[in-house]
Amino acid sequence: MEFSVGEHIVHPAHGAGTVVGVQNQELVTGFQRYYVIRFADKRLTVRVPSRKVDEIGLRSVMGSTKCEEVIRVLRSLPQTLPNNFKERRRIVEKLIHSGRPVKVAEALRELSWRRELKPLNKADSELFSQANSMLVQEMALATGEDTAEVERKISDALNESMRAKLLTQKKESE
Questions:
Q1: Cα–Cα distance for residue pair 126/45, rounded to 1 Å
Q2: Counting Cβ atoms within 10 Å, is residue 141 exposed (0-12), middle (13-18) or buried (19+)?
Q3: Phi and psi at residue 119, in whole multiples of 5°?
Q4: Where are the domains of the chain?
Q5: What is the pTM of this model?
Q6: What share of the chain is helix, strand, coil (3-state, %, to 5)?
Q7: Rounded to an integer, what is the distance from CA 74 to the centroid of its chain?
Q8: Could you count the other beta carbons within 10 Å of the beta carbon of residue 87?
Q9: Domain 64-173 falls in which CATH fold?
Q10: How many CA atoms lie within 13 A of 36 on its CB side?
Q11: Per-residue confidence (pLDDT) for residue 170, from 0 to 100
Q12: pLDDT in single tens digits along all 174 residues of the chain
């Protein structure tokens, strides 16, 4: 996949960023082309070899259809995460580091529900913040909305998921 300067992209580990340059560097094996990517919200710049783009999972920002799918996922009923900390963390990290917006939304939804049941531990809180930040940044780039508006939409969708789960539990207990 080819990217151009100024294009918004998503790195599975760092989230949404912008290609700020394309560099050619001479190595022993010949010239190597790199994408220089800036992640403004993290004050981070990385160089990704163009031949590793697919392997790393670098991709273009999601489209509006995918944004709608993410909101649907956030509104849907959560799955139950394991109580075992290591198992839960492994599952959530796998979802987040997939770099796929729907999977990141699933992680955020599950952690949001867990937070309603009891306070999140430090590691779960960090994963919640990471997933939320990744979705906010990418959806803001995809829709052209400011991050505060996107955060509100995500929060509203998660609240709908909570209400749906509570109604389901209430019906089951009757």
A1: 21
A2: buried
A3: -60, 140
A4: 8-60, 64-173
A5: 0.84
A6: 60, 20, 20
A7: 12
A8: 11
A9: Methane Monooxygenase Hydroxylase; Chain G, domain 1 (1.20.58)
A10: 8
A11: 67
A12: 789 999 999 998 888 999 999 998 876 666 788 999 998 777 899 999 998 999 998 999 999 899 999 999 999 988 888 889 999 999 999 999 888 999 999 999 999 989 988 899 999 999 999 999 999 999 998 998 999 999 999 999 999 877 776 777 667 776
Determine the pLDDT at residue 62: 94
How many whole angstroms separate alpha carbon 15 and alpha carbon 41?
Answer: 10
CATH classification for the domain delimited by 8-60, as one of 3.40.50.970, 3.40.50.720, 2.40.10.170, 3.40.50.10610: 2.40.10.170
The residues, any chain, with a CB within 8 Å of residue 35's CB and separated by 6 or more, are: 3, 9, 19, 21, 22, 47, 48, 50, 53, 58
Burial 8-41 (b: 16+ CB within 10 A, else e): bbbbbebbbbbbeeeeeeeeeeeeeebbbbebee
Give which of 25, 63, 33 is closest to 49, Cα–Cα. 33
Alpha carbons within 13 angstroms on the beta-carbon side of residue 15 total 21
